[in-house]
Amino acid sequence: MAILQCENLSFGYDGETVLEGVNFSLNAGDYLCVVGENGSGKSTLIRGLLGLKAPEKGSIRFGDGLQSTEIGYLPQQTQIQRDFPASVREVVLSGCLNSLGRRLHYNADDRARAAMNMERMGIEDLADKSYQGLSGGQQQRVLLARALCATKKLLLLDEPVTGLDPIATGEMYNLIKLVNLCDDITVIMVSHDIHAAVRYATHILHLGHEQLFFGTSGAYKESSLARRFLGGGRL
Amino acid sequence: MNELIHMLSYHFMQRALLVGVLVSLCAALLGVSLVLKRYSMIGDGLSHVGFGALAIASALHLAPLAVAVPVVIVAAVLLLRLSENRRIKGDAAIAIISSSALAIGVISVSVTTGMNTEVSSYMFGSILSLSRSDTILSVILSLAVLLLFFAFYPRLFAVTFDESFARATGTRTELYNTLLAVLTAVTVVLGMRMMGALLISSLIIFPAMSAMRVCKSFRSVVITAAVVSVSCFLIGAVASYFLETPTGASIVAANLLAFLGFSLAGKKH
């Protein structure tokens, strides 16, 4: 059963269409990489999926009882966060924000979920450490743990390896794949790293103001689009 | 010691200390979020608007707080909207609004009463300026600020740390930003009477900055800022009584010393 279905989606700002003709659907457990050049509409699509931007046309349907507020979102980091005084535990716990409902404060269940996700990301030893003192790779793992607190079904990752060194990048990709495989969590990742995209993802969505390609990674590798995007190199 | 007891026997001192402690607490708690969100200048801008409102209220012989609180709340919401507007730069918007309000205040003072002690106390603060009804209103409002801050603490943290994540999980970030602005507005107006329009923003910025030199978690920053703020207020207020220095300036001086101390301690870490 489809967990996400986009039909004939288009988005625009001030009447000017920036992305159109988006048609794809994902099943539970799929791993989708959204690729495309800067300004191709990737960020707009993300904002649309999160319910922060209404589409001009078309529809976004979630299956399996998922709400747009139950997506585990990992946004691009801002400079403010890099020097923000917060402990790892505080940051991860803030992922339980969408389960607060009418409650004002987090309860024991929320704290247990935060602890479990820290363990999953291998950062339980860092719980009381300062977020700003961590390495880039550790910070991204903290944000991934926070995203996992917010969802049981769908992760949406916006360029999660930007600025990481090659080792941390590899670890991050492996963690994401692990979550995808072991916990059957659907992953949507925006990425510049096309080589990693075809290696880890099951599906590729290539945007360039419109949908240029949607299909499995295998089919994408064979497409002329992928060859052009890679500058002629073989995968 | 006797002199301290003697000081505390004055009603105006009791009132000033009570309101001062509460306002210092409010300012410190909100200050942490404002400094981290890069909204520090909003406090400064609001104090100028507050001065304008108080000057007009005194020219028209109206109750100062009853006029200033709503005016500054409106200005706070406006400033927040403007700083989110991409066409006008946030800091420029604050400068425009605050200097205009100051100008209007100065004009209305000069055409009516002239520069009297009341107006000067709005500028530089005075520990004597709190009337009984002001005190009651100040206590109620600052308790409301504290209550709302604690009630929405997890949400305010989330909105301060990462607005896009908070928005994605369905948090109405605009609502909480507005709440922050309104609480700041109330705190600025209450603090202005004691600190003065020119010095109130330091009450918001200094404790948070001091705490951030040494603390590593949000909660410890909030608690430390609150303790620093209240201690510096008490030290400054008592010093100003004995040394006959202006209250607001003495409190800022105490905060400056605390900041330098915390900076040194932070460096050693």
Describe the 3D structure.
- With 235 residues, chain A is of the alpha/beta class.
- Chain A is built from nine helices and nine strands.
- Chain A has helices at 42-49, 79-82, 88-93, 108-120, 136-150, 166-182, 194-200, 217-222, 224-229; strands at residues 2-13, 16-27, 31-35, 57-62, 71-74, 154-158, 186-190, 203-207, 211-216.
- The model of chain A has no long low-confidence stretch (mean pLDDT 88).
- The model of chain B has no long low-confidence stretch (mean pLDDT 87).
- With 269 residues, chain B is mainly alpha-helical.
- Classes of the chains: A alpha/beta (235), B mainly alpha (269).
- Chain A binds chain B through residues 50-52, 67-71, 73, 75, 78, 80-81, 84-87, 89-91, 93-95, 97-98, 100, 104-106, 128-130, 132-133, 146, 150, 156, and chain B through 36-38, 151-155, 157-158, 160-162, 164-171, 212, 215-221.
List the helices and strands and how they pair.
The complex is a heterodimer of chains A (235) and B (269).
Chain A: E1 2-13, E2 16-27, E3 31-35, H1 42-49, E4 57-62, E5 71-74, H2 79-82, H3 88-93, H4 108-120, H5 136-150, E6 154-158, H6 166-182, E7 186-190, H7 194-200, E8 203-207, E9 211-216, H8 217-222, H9 224-229
Parallel strand pairs in A: 3-7, 3-8, 5-6, 6-7
Antiparallel strand pairs in A: 1-2, 1-4, 8-9
Chain B: H1 2-8, H2 11-36, H3 40-59, H4 64-84, H5 90-111, H6 117-124, H7 132-151, H8 153-161, H9 163-168, H10 173-195, H11 200-214, H12 218-243, H13 247-268
Helix pairs in contact in B: 2-7, 2-10, 2-11, 2-12, 3-4, 3-5, 3-6, 3-10, 3-11, 4-5, 4-10, 6-10, 7-10, 10-11, 11-12, 11-13, 12-13
